[in-house]
Amino acid sequence: MNSLTLALEGAGKVLGAGLVFGAGLPVVYALAMRLLTIGATPADGDTAPHYTPLGRALAGLLILVVAGGVVLGLVLIVASGFGKAVSFENILPTIVDKK
Fold first, then answer.
1. Helix/strand/coil for 46
2. In whole angstroms, what is the distance from residue 46 CA to residue 63 CA?
3. Is pLDDT above 70 for 26?
4. In angstroms, what is the C-alpha Rg of the chain?
């Protein structure tokens, strides 16, 4: 019974990570594209919309979050390939030797 509990806990962690990295980042990217259109209006006779500074700033911030998530994921994969681990002890991720 104990092994079933441990298996379910592990599956829950994998599901959570999958939602954050698998579905969460595309949702944040889609939200960034949507925020880009805040207050955007097409000019007279022009087909391209004119974006507002607020929409651009918010979209840019969310794009940086997505890029950071991608870079963090790559760091985790590469570090484990070299036999290292990524530690979040000091809030910023650092590559350390496995214990």
1. coil
2. 27
3. yes
4. 20
Bridge partners of 94?
Answer: 87
The Cα–Cα gap between 99 and 95 comes to 12
pTM for this model (two decimals): 0.68
Domain ranges of the chain: 2-97
Per DSSP, the three-state class of 82 is coil
Tokens of 81: 């390939």
Rounded Cα–Cα distance for residues 70 and 92 (Å): 15
pLDDT, one tens digit per residue, over 29-78 is: 999 999 888 877 776 667 777 788 888 999 999 999 999 988 888 888 88
Residue 83 CA to residue 67 CA, distance in Å, equals 24
What CA–CA distance (Å, rounded) separates 14 from 81?
19
Contacts of residue 93, Cβ cutoff 8 Å, sequence gap at least 6 = 72, 75, 86, 87
